Amino acid sequence: MGARAVFAAADGEGFSAAAARFRAGPCSVVLVKDLSAPSPAPFLSPVEQAACDALKIPKRKAEWLGGRLAAKLAGAGAFFPEVPLREIEVRRELTGSPFLACRGERSHVSISHSAGVCGAAAGPDFLGLDIEETAPRHPGWYRDYFSPAEREGKDEAAMTGLWAAKEALFKALGLGLSCDTLDADLSGPEPVLRGKALARWDELGRPAFVLESFHPAPGLEGRVVFAKERSNKR
Ligand SMILES: CC(C)(COP(=O)(O)OP(=O)(O)OC[C@H]1O[C@@H](n2cnc3c(N)ncnc32)[C@H](O)[C@@H]1OP(=O)(O)O)[C@@H](O)C(=O)NCCC(=O)NCCS
């Protein structure tokens, strides 16, 4: 059972919000909710502000902004203390996988948003974070995305946690949901990978991944996956 996140009032560089901060192994994790910030938001770089302005759907804009703030706060906590948040830029690989760039350095970050909570983890190596809302699902969801061994004996909250674990693992691999969810079987103590997930894991030098749980709020499951040891692949 993972830790329940504790939110406290947070403000800085033109924003106010409630934020929860904790560590998962070598990673700094920050969750943000109830964000209030003017437009333009002082914690964004000019490139990020232009990307934000291009988002027209209010819900998407709010989660994008909350994810950026969580990522910058996590990056500041892990690597870039004392640096203005607008100088810690969230950029994306061609796959969509985010990373932090600051004053010529880069570091790993992962972002997720669900039901008003935005979260990010920053760390020295491959990592993934996912937040999912527990909700009733169509029977096909259980059947199509999980092996029989993964489904066995689990209630809705446990299956949501398992989904979050898979997504966090696929984000750590930089794949997102571009691979088959059955490419990772998480029924045992170690993930069993196949297909595109296995090929990518090989490419990254087969890092040993650790999975940790956290509870962002009632009805939400959070999972973070990180490499146990630093690899020399980037
Ligand atoms: C990325 C993806 C896993 C997001 O899942 P989700 O549950 O909808 O959203 P989450 O809030 O948990 O995560 C979103 C964040 O994942 C990150 N992300 C995107 N692509 C990623 C990748 N390849 N690897 C790691 N992280 C990725 C982004 O930072 C994104 O947030 P942002 O757009 O605000 O920066 C999923 O949408 C995806 O892989 N999409 C591309 C492939 C696809 O569309 N497949 C069909 C879907 S069934």
What does this entry look like structurally?
- A seven-stranded antiparallel sheet has the order 2-3-4-8-7-6-5, with helices on one face.
- Helices cover 28% and strands 34% of the residues.
- It is built from six helices and 13 strands.
- Strand 2 (8-12) and strand 3 form a beta hairpin.
- It is α+β, with helices and mostly antiparallel strands.
- The longest helix has 21 residues, at 58-78.
- The protein has helices at residues 46-53, 58-78, 139-145, 148-151, 156-172, 195-203, and strands at residues 3-4, 8-12, 15-24, 27-36, 89-92, 98-102, 105-114, 117-123, 127-133, 184-185, 192-193, 209-215, 220-227.
- Residues 64, 67, 95-98, 110-113, 130, 167, 171, 174-178 line the site of coenzyme A.
- Coenzyme A is lined by residues 64, 67, 95-98, 110-113, 130, 167, 171, 174-178.
Average pLDDT, to the nearest integer?
95
Unique bound compounds: coenzyme A
Strand content: 25-35%
Total tally of structural domains? 1
The number of strands is 13
State the distance separating the first and last CA atoms: 31 Å
Helix content: 25-40%
Find the structural class using helix and strand composition.
alpha+beta
How many whole angstroms does the radius of gyration measure? Answer: 17 Å
- What is the CATH top level name? Alpha Beta
Walk across the major sheet and give the strand order. 2-3-4-8-7-6-5
H and E order: EEEEHHEEEEEHHHEEHEE
Tags for this entry?
Ribosomal Protein L22, Chain A; four-stranded mixed sheet; globular; binds coenzyme A; alpha+beta; 13 strands; 28% helix; seven-stranded antiparallel sheet; 234 residues; single chain
